[in-house]
Amino acid sequence: MPNSKLPLLPDEKHTNLEKGLWIVCKKCGERIFAPSFEKNLNVCPKCNYYYPMRPEPRFDMMFDDSEYTVLRDPMLKDNPLGFVDTKSYTERLKDYRKTTGYPDGANSALGNINGVKTVVWVLNFDFMGGSMGRFVGESFLKSVEMALKNNAAFVAFVASGGARMQEGVLSLMQMARTTLGVSNLKKAGLPYIVVLTNPTMGGVTASFAMLGDVAIAEEGAEIGFAGKRVIENTIKKKLPEDFQTSEYLQKHGVVDIVIKRKDEKEVIGNILSILTKKKV
Asked: Which of 79, 118, 126, 182 has the most CB atoms around it within 10 Å of its CB?
């Protein structure tokens, strides 16, 4: 099965195929053979639209020989504010845990990239849009601690809609906490690389996502704080068509490198080798 939640074609149209073997690209509408989609690292082979990747495929792709140790998830109490909208936050978390198989929106692992000991931390967009709550903030800090303990570099793959509204001010506090974690990495002289993926928005963009020693973005990613339509309605002006894309941000000096997903291991491995040699 593919890692992203793309719509499946109705089974009755493909009675000779297994269930879920075909998916439909939400951008171009083309039918995609699911194994080909996975082999292409969750990028549509027709229109080159990038879909989010879950943590394990990221780890497999990035670490040497796909060998790594997954770090322990933080243990936190659910729903500290007793938040309820159309359903309770507790029930919403249960639903996402059941459908995704993950406890919350971030995972990390320790291994080697191009021979450089590295912690890779991944925001999981399938879990409530990669929104940043206490779990995500705590996961980031625990991963920073592991990097400090092992004298390891830190690479963050970011995909998020922003802070998690169900946790109110507690989610906004994670902006400051994650920023402090980045500061600790930099004080220790450890490389901190951020890979901005589609989409990266809101409080995540306004905190740790923009603090990398090197800012890398995947092709065509939407990156910003408020959405384009919100900004246009506020300033009453039409913004450029490519506004808030990876390419636009690179042109204006916000992003250092725009990259194809298939090249990430090689490029990040080379950067880590250069940065760690400079350190020595």
From this structure: 118
Tell me the residue type at 246.
Answer: S
Q: In residues, how long is the chain? A: 280
**Among the listed residues 92, 226, 256, 75, the one whose alpha carbon sits nearest the alpha carbon of residue 163:** 226
Q: What is the CA 179 to chain-centroid distance, rounded? A: 17
Euclidean distance between CA atoms 277 and 280, whole angstroms: 5
Q: Summarize pLDDT for 206-241 with one digit per residue, the tens.
A: 999 999 999 999 999 999 999 889 999 999 999 998
Give me the residue label for tokens 């000779």.
16
DSSP H/E element including 268: helix 264-279
**Which H or E run contains 153?**
strand 153-160
pLDDT digits (tens, 9 = 90+) for 46-68: 999 999 999 999 999 999 999 99
Nearest residue to 111 via CA among 156, 65, 142: 65
Cα end-to-end distance, the chain, whole Å: 44
Distances (CA, A) of 256 to 12, 218, 247: 47, 11, 10
d(CA 216, CA 156): 10
User: What sign results for the dihedral spanned by CA atoms 162, 166, 168, 174?
Assistant: negative
